[in-house]
Amino acid sequence: MRDKIKIYIIGLLTGICNGLFGAGGGTLLVPAMNHVLKIEQHKAHATAIAIILPLSIISSIFYISKSLVDWNLTLKVVIANIIGGYIGAKILNKFTDGTLKLIFGIFMIIAGIRMVFFK
Protein backbone atom coordinates (compact mmCIF):
# COMPACT_ATOMS: atom_id res chain seq x y z
CA MET A 1 0.00 0.00 0.00
CA ARG A 2 2.84 2.36 0.85
CA ASP A 3 4.46 1.85 -2.55
CA LYS A 4 1.15 2.59 -4.27
CA ILE A 5 0.92 5.92 -2.46
CA LYS A 6 4.53 6.74 -3.36
CA ILE A 7 3.86 5.87 -7.00
CA TYR A 8 0.79 8.12 -7.16
CA ILE A 9 2.62 11.01 -5.46
CA ILE A 10 5.56 10.67 -7.86
CA GLY A 11 3.14 10.56 -10.80
CA LEU A 12 1.21 13.61 -9.63
CA LEU A 13 4.31 15.72 -8.93
CA THR A 14 6.08 14.81 -12.16
CA GLY A 15 2.88 15.44 -14.12
CA ILE A 16 2.55 18.91 -12.60
CA CYS A 17 6.21 19.67 -13.33
CA ASN A 18 5.84 18.45 -16.90
CA GLY A 19 2.83 20.71 -17.41
CA LEU A 20 4.57 23.71 -15.85
CA PHE A 21 8.12 23.40 -17.13
CA GLY A 22 8.03 20.86 -19.95
CA ALA A 23 10.23 18.67 -17.76
CA GLY A 24 9.50 16.04 -15.22
CA GLY A 25 9.52 12.86 -17.21
CA GLY A 26 13.17 11.96 -17.12
CA THR A 27 14.52 14.65 -14.85
CA LEU A 28 12.31 13.76 -11.91
CA LEU A 29 10.97 10.30 -12.68
CA VAL A 30 14.33 8.58 -13.04
CA PRO A 31 15.75 9.68 -9.67
CA ALA A 32 12.39 9.16 -7.94
CA MET A 33 12.01 5.64 -9.28
CA ASN A 34 15.63 4.82 -8.52
CA HIS A 35 15.84 6.26 -5.00
CA VAL A 36 12.27 6.17 -3.69
CA LEU A 37 10.95 3.04 -5.39
CA LYS A 38 14.34 1.26 -5.58
CA ILE A 39 14.02 0.49 -9.30
CA GLU A 40 17.37 -0.22 -10.93
CA GLN A 41 18.78 2.54 -13.12
CA HIS A 42 18.30 0.96 -16.55
CA LYS A 43 14.70 0.02 -15.82
CA ALA A 44 14.03 3.51 -14.38
CA HIS A 45 15.26 5.16 -17.60
CA ALA A 46 13.23 2.84 -19.83
CA THR A 47 10.11 3.16 -17.65
CA ALA A 48 10.41 6.96 -17.62
CA ILE A 49 10.38 6.99 -21.42
CA ALA A 50 7.23 4.84 -21.46
CA ILE A 51 5.58 7.18 -18.92
CA ILE A 52 6.56 10.33 -20.81
CA LEU A 53 4.54 9.43 -23.92
CA PRO A 54 1.01 9.74 -22.48
CA LEU A 55 2.16 12.62 -20.27
CA SER A 56 3.46 14.50 -23.31
CA ILE A 57 0.33 13.78 -25.34
CA ILE A 58 -1.91 15.33 -22.66
CA SER A 59 0.34 18.39 -22.24
CA SER A 60 0.69 18.76 -26.03
CA ILE A 61 -3.08 18.74 -26.56
CA PHE A 62 -3.40 21.60 -24.10
CA TYR A 63 -0.51 23.61 -25.62
CA ILE A 64 -1.79 23.04 -29.16
CA SER A 65 -5.26 24.23 -28.14
CA LYS A 66 -3.64 27.45 -26.87
CA SER A 67 -1.60 27.89 -30.11
CA LEU A 68 1.66 27.71 -28.17
CA VAL A 69 3.43 25.17 -30.43
CA ASP A 70 5.99 26.31 -33.02
CA TRP A 71 5.24 23.67 -35.66
CA ASN A 72 8.17 24.57 -37.93
CA LEU A 73 10.64 24.06 -35.09
CA THR A 74 8.78 20.99 -33.80
CA LEU A 75 8.95 19.13 -37.11
CA LYS A 76 12.67 19.83 -37.52
CA VAL A 77 13.56 18.75 -33.99
CA VAL A 78 11.33 15.65 -34.05
CA ILE A 79 13.20 14.15 -37.00
CA ALA A 80 16.58 14.39 -35.25
CA ASN A 81 15.00 13.45 -31.92
CA ILE A 82 13.65 10.16 -33.28
CA ILE A 83 17.11 9.22 -34.53
CA GLY A 84 18.73 10.24 -31.23
CA GLY A 85 16.12 8.36 -29.21
CA TYR A 86 16.76 5.20 -31.19
CA ILE A 87 20.52 5.49 -30.72
CA GLY A 88 20.13 6.19 -26.99
CA ALA A 89 17.84 3.20 -26.51
CA LYS A 90 20.30 0.94 -28.35
CA ILE A 91 23.29 1.97 -26.22
CA LEU A 92 21.51 2.15 -22.82
CA ASN A 93 22.49 -1.39 -21.83
CA LYS A 94 26.14 -0.78 -22.66
CA PHE A 95 26.50 1.29 -19.46
CA THR A 96 26.65 0.03 -15.89
CA ASP A 97 24.15 1.45 -13.39
CA GLY A 98 26.90 3.56 -11.83
CA THR A 99 28.03 5.00 -15.16
CA LEU A 100 24.44 5.71 -16.16
CA LYS A 101 23.82 7.56 -12.87
CA LEU A 102 27.03 9.56 -13.35
CA ILE A 103 26.20 10.58 -16.93
CA PHE A 104 22.61 11.45 -15.99
CA GLY A 105 23.79 13.44 -12.96
CA ILE A 106 26.32 15.40 -15.01
CA PHE A 107 23.66 16.31 -17.58
CA MET A 108 21.32 17.42 -14.77
CA ILE A 109 24.02 19.61 -13.19
CA ILE A 110 24.95 21.21 -16.53
CA ALA A 111 21.27 21.87 -17.32
CA GLY A 112 20.71 23.41 -13.88
CA ILE A 113 23.76 25.67 -14.14
CA ARG A 114 22.75 26.83 -17.62
CA MET A 115 19.20 27.63 -16.50
CA VAL A 116 20.31 29.58 -13.44
CA PHE A 117 23.36 31.45 -14.73
CA PHE A 118 22.94 31.82 -18.51
CA LYS A 119 20.12 33.40 -20.45
UniProtKB/TrEMBL annotation:
Protein biosynthesis keyword on record: no
Swiss-Prot/TrEMBL keywords: Cell membrane, Membrane, Transmembrane, Transmembrane helix
GO-annotated cellular components: plasma membrane
Subcellular location as annotated: Cell membrane; Membrane
Membrane topology, record value: Multi-pass membrane protein
Main location (coarse class): membrane
Transmembrane parts of this sequence: 7-32, 44-64, 73-92, 98-117
Keyword Nucleus: no
Protein family: Belongs to the 4-toluene sulfonate uptake permease (TSUP) (TC 2.A.102) family.
Protein name in the entry: Probable membrane transporter protein
Lineage of the species this protein comes from: Bacteria, Bacillati, Bacillota, Clostridia, Eubacteriales
